Amino acid sequence: MATPTPDPSLPAMGDPFHLSLLRTPRGRFRVSLPPGGEFLLGTPEPLSRPGAAGQSFCIPITEMVGVQLGGSGSPPTVEGNQFTVFFVQREKRQRWSLGSLEFTVAPGSGLAPRWVDALQRSIQLHGVTRPRKLLVFVNPVGGRCRAGEIYRDRVAGLFALAGIQTEVIETQRPHEARELILQQDLGDLDGLVCVGGDGTFNELMHALISRTQRKAGIPEDNPAATLLPPRLRIGIIPAGSTDCICFATVGTNDPVTSALHIIIGDSQPLDVCSVHHHERLLRYAVSLVGYGFYGDVVSDSERHRWMGPMRYDFSGFKAVLCNRSYEGTVEFLTAGGTEANPRDQTRCRAGCLVCSESSHQLLGRSEEEKLPQQESTGAAVSEWQREQGRFLAINLTCMSSACPKSPDGLSPSAHLADGTADLILVRECSALGFLRHLSRHMDHRDQFDLPFVSVHRVRALRFTPKQLEDSEERERPGCRGWKGLLQGLCWGEQPLSSWSCDGETLPHADISVRVHGQLIHLFARGIEQKMGLV
After folding, report:
1. pLDDT digits over 199-219, tens only?
2. DSSP string, 169-204
3. Which SS3 state, helix, strand or coil, does residue 363 take?
4. How many angstroms separate the CA atoms of 453 and 298, rounded?
5. What is the pLDDT of residue 450?
6. Measured CA distances, 423 to 41, 391, 395, 412, 458 (Å)
């Protein structure tokens, strides 16, 4: 049976269909909330007026931030003939902003509060994943020391508009957030939010994963243990120096965009690497586990913290000039199966089919992913492989690791939640050759299309360094291929590099790494496909 059309002169507000003739700053619109309440629709009235057809609007309820009585620039009122709808508005380059549309009803009709009630009920019905209470950690010294200002001026008001209850903690010392997460009762929370950089996020992630495993009695120090995903999601309000994780999962480092993803309850699963030294957990990582070049850059940059973010450029310049390579054995468990490969030119985007299919396959992989004492070969779908030699860089990443300086990242086709990581091996080469490899991270050329670079999609990794036996060679001053002034800059050839794990230097060179598929969830949806603004 067809739904009867309400009389526009006396709009009906009963379920399951709402229709009113309302005035907006753009003119009069026939506004409706169809059965199911998934969209707020507006059609110009009369439709025959010039340009009216292009002025229609459709606001998804799932992307509606809030609705209130009164105008957008005035505080909410109990009475009146106006109500305002606030919603996600897409801008360029993956940015979102807060859009608003004011509606005016006929005087004395009493329609404004009825529309507000109907829309709020629809938001509640279709927003079951939206957070209602969040614990927010603000790192006042992270990045450019503007985290507190960013949260107060750009985010707090959005959370209040959406009706989200927040507890805000401005940390005063290192590891304070970790201690609170491990000890505090989090039962009434829907998520954690960090306002800071990648380091702040990592502190929250480590604490949340550790808390979950401890409560479940799962030994984190066991490299073969199957870890339990935490219940709570993590939101990232970018306020750091690079904000790589936010950029790779949202597509931009904009605090308002991230806040809106949190408000509408987006959920993006994320693979996590556990890094062990024998039977001891060292770190978790979601971005980069790097040995050689990136390990040297991070460890050297710690000596120049007074330089601020510029210390990474300085240490990177030194590392390129020194052109150090390190000898060792890399063993890795290939992904196998039908997964996409690192050079297929695909991109992990919102609604990624590769990640969606992997979510069904990950449940049966616990035995396959265990790290055996002996190398496993044969007819298995995944098999262990080994490469030996001297490497300038050994990089393992669970995501593209894109950032504003490198829009495609270390591995452009890496996926966020397919249960694998991309292993990039850069063998010994000239400084000029390595510079060519690095430059391709910034100009969209294939950084793997070089004879000394190989890339593999893997589920696990083991690395054993070759120790130099000649102590005199270990202490030899100078640097291979460079003389004079550069000898002092490079201060000698080193037998071992350091592993950098999401920006933190590890104390051991011999490690094992395992990928845990979709171990955590972020308030994000992945980078959206490019499309026209609606």
Report:
1. 999 999 999 999 999 999 999
2. EE--STTHHHHHHHHS--TT-SEEEEEE-HHHHHHH
3. helix
4. 22
5. 95
6. 48, 13, 6, 12, 7
Highest-confidence range of 34-38, 334-338, 393-397, by mean pLDDT?
393-397
Which residue's entry shows tokens 């590769």? 354
Structure tokens at 193: 């939010």
Helix residue spans in 191-309 (DSSP H): 198-216, 244-250, 255-263, 293-301
Distance, in Å, from the CA atom of 225 to the CA atom of 218, rounded to the nearest integer, reads 7
Structure tokens given for 110: 């009493």
Nearest to 494 by CA among 271, 305, 293, 325: 325
Q: What's the whole-number average pLDDT of the chain? A: 86
Q: What are 372's two structure tokens? A: 């055996």
Helix (H, G, I), strand (E, B) or coil at 154: helix
User: What are 470-518's pLDDT values in tens digits?
Assistant: 433 443 333 444 444 455 567 556 789 999 999 899 999 999 999 999 9
pLDDT in tens, 264-274: 999 999 999 99
User: Token digits for 163?
Assistant: 């009706």
Share of the chain above pLDDT 70, in %: 83
* Number of other residues whose CB lies within 10 A of the CB of residue 339: 19
Tokens encoding 181: 């997460």
pLDDT for residue 13 is more than 80: no
Question: Sign of dihedral through CA atoms 250, 253, 257, 261?
Answer: positive
Token pair of 54 as six digits = 């292009």
Chain centre distance of CA 331: 28
Structure tokens at 226: 């199957």
Number of residues that this document lists for the chain: 534
Structural tokens at position 191? 């998520």
CA–CA distances in Å: residue 254 to residues 203, 273, 379, 450: 21, 26, 47, 35
Active-site entry in 198, 271, 408, 418: 198
Residue 301 pLDDT exceeds 70: yes
Q: What is the DSSP letter of 403?
A: B
344 is catalytic: no
Strand partners, 194: 137, 236
- Is 79 strand, coil or helix? coil
Query: Cα dihedral sign for 171, 268, 126, 20?
Result: positive
Which carries the bigger pLDDT value, residue 491 or residue 194?
Answer: 194
Q: What does the block give as tokens for 161? A: 């508009």
Cα separation, 192 vs 236, whole angstroms: 9
pTM: 0.89
305-324 burial, b for 16+ CB within 10 Å, e for fewer?
eeeeeebbeebbebbbbbbb
DSSP state for residue 85 in the 8-state scheme: E
For residue 262, give the nearest of 402, 63, 399 by alpha carbon.
Answer: 63
Please state the separation of Cα 18 from the chain's center in Å.
38
